[in-house]
Amino acid sequence: MITLDLPKDLEQLLDRFAKDLGISKEDLALRAIKDRVEDLEDLAIGEAAIANDDGGRIPLADIVAEFSDGSDENGNPLHAAE
Questions:
Q1: How far is the CA of 30 from the CAs of 9, 14, 23, 36, 38, in angstroms?
Q2: For 5-50, what is each residue's pLDDT tens digit?
């Protein structure tokens, strides 16, 4: 359980949007906190991946050759950029 004392302008904004969405202020606040924390988690994962990047890359042509029959959904040949 957490209790927050929100600035008056933020509480009014929260109240207005909650009414517009037809949900309680508490539900809107929980949704906003959850979304923000998930965004921060995604950012941390991305930053860790960048920090651990060894610089190795796989050319698109190799990926297309391995996972495709060489044509698009209409049967036209694919040409990967080199």
A1: 18, 11, 11, 10, 12
A2: 999 999 999 999 999 999 999 999 999 999 999 999 999 999 999 9
- CA–CA distance, 60 with 72 (Å, rounded to integer): 15
Work out the burial of residue 15: count CB atoms within 10 Å of its CB; fewer than 13 is exposed, 13-18 middle, 19 or more buried.
middle
Would you say the C-alpha torsion 10, 14, 20, 21 has a positive or negative sign?
positive
Identify the CA nearest to 21 among candidates 34, 10, 32, 35. Answer: 32
